[in-house]
Amino acid sequence: MATEHDRDEPAPAGQVLPLPPAPDAIELRHLRAFVAVAEELNFGRAAARLFLSQPALSRQIRTLERLIGNDLLRRSTHRVELTLAGDALLDRARRLLTDVDDAVRSTRSVGGELAERAAKAWRPVHDLTSADASIHRIRAATEEFHAEIEPPEGTVARPVNAGGVPALSVSDGPPRPLTVLHLHGGAYVAGSAFGFRPLAGALSLAAGAGVLLPEYRLAPEHPFPAAVDDAVHAYRWLLDTGVPAERITVSGDSAGGGLALALLLTLKEQAVPLPAQVLLLCPWVDLTCDLQPAHEPQPFLDPRQQRAFATAYVGDHDPGDPRLSPLTADLAGLPPMLVQSATGDPLARDAQRVVERARSFDVDARLEIYSAATHVFQYFWSFLPEAADALTHAGAFISRVAD
Fold it and tell me: Which of 18, 216, 331, 377 is 20 to 30 A off residue 120, Cα-Cα?
């Protein structure tokens, strides 16, 4: 509290009275939304650029205007214009965002130890993926690997029977509408819904959406099409619970990415309403295992073991089935897709090829490549900045339709 003496003493010469600071509630996302709209002068293009729905983008702009106390944009039916206040903010907001991005890049440049931490986390699994390792040891190592990753604080996993398929409902706190169907990785032979709670929780937190994580059946005990059938049952269950297809995002990591495409192709064949979009995290879609990585990162799988996993999953079925070979499938009519990969992922070619294939059928497919030296780097969101960025972008992509 100011005293009488404080009020009577003049301000020192050459100083001005301080202006009030900016409201603490202003966030970088508000400024990024404003800059995108100011540069595009079109809410639709700005929303697409930020992977947001137009209503969500409009809410961010209104929040920023309310916090600042000025209108920043003039909106009419046919055009968007900057106000004088908006024009005054634009260059300053650009400089601020550039400084923040430069600071993050500089920090990453000295953060090589984080990449090594991610590589070390994978090693126990890699060490067991030689051609003579038993499926039971590989499954145990996979569960131990995921057990080392803590789910985000506050996320809750609840058991669900999804059309006869055991599953988990994962949300960041109270139950949310299940608008994401995530299919986990594990080369079709390992992995579990329980083990993948951390990744599902991170997606839920980033998107503000509930995630359904099915416990689909694994090969070799249950070869193709058992996993696809389980995914179809889980998706139909979502529709039966009243979730509209236009609000659903199907996602998958590694082999789960291939399974996600198989699900979409099956739904298309069965004339079931397709989801609004698909998210693929470092997908494995080439079961011929034709791997030619551009770099030499730490090994992902012994090629013989990877082929053995693919053979166990394919079973007696024709490998030319489009649900097994999406790189040769007719992808026409599939929903928009966001595909994320890493520079050091041995399966980076799979991500590139599936995007090229989708685009050849006029599918809106986008590829994001991050500077990381491991497969499914998104698992390491808790300490790897690239993974946190990727999941933040994935969450914005999901929220376009989940709102």
Answer: 216
Cβ 198 vs Cβ 379: under 8 Å? yes
What is the value of pTM for the model shown? Answer: 0.76
What are the DSSP calls for 291-310, one per residue?
---SS--S----HHHHHHHH
Instruction: Please list the pLDDT of the chain residue by residue as tens digits (403 residues).
Output: 333 334 444 444 444 445 456 666 788 899 999 999 999 999 988 887 787 778 889 999 999 999 999 999 998 878 899 999 999 999 999 999 988 877 776 665 555 666 666 666 666 666 655 545 688 888 988 898 888 888 998 899 999 999 999 999 999 877 888 999 999 999 999 999 999 999 999 999 999 999 999 999 999 999 999 999 999 999 999 999 999 999 999 999 999 999 999 999 999 999 999 999 999 999 999 988 765 444 444 445 567 778 889 999 999 998 889 999 999 999 999 999 999 999 888 889 999 999 999 999 999 999 999 988 888 999 999 888 889 999 999 999 999 897 6
Question: What is the Rg, in whole angstroms, of the alpha carbon atoms belonging to the chain?
Answer: 24
Q: Read out DSSP for 30-72?
A: HHHHHHHHHHHS-HHHHHHHHT--HHHHHHHHHHHHHHHTS--
Nearest to 337 by CA among 254, 264, 235, 242: 264
Q: Which one of 2.30.29.50, 1.10.10.10, 3.30.365.10, 1.10.238.10 gives the CATH number of domain 22-109?
A: 1.10.10.10
| Segments in 170-252 forming alpha helices (H) | 197-207, 226-240
The residues carrying an active-site annotation are 254, 345, 375
Cβ atoms 277, 397 nearer than 8 A: yes
Looking from the CA of 224 toward its CB, the CA atoms found within 13 Å total: 26
CATH number of 112-402: 3.40.50.1820
Parallel, antiparallel, or unpaired for β 156-162 and 80-82? unpaired
Domains of the chain: which residue ranges? 22-109, 112-402
Handedness of CA 302, 308, 314, 319 (dihedral sign): positive
Distance CA 210, CA 157 (A): 10
User: Using an 8 Å Cβ cutoff, are 343 and 295 in contact?
Assistant: yes
Cα 283 from Cα 237, distance rounded (Å): 25
Contact 251, 376 (CB under 8 A): no
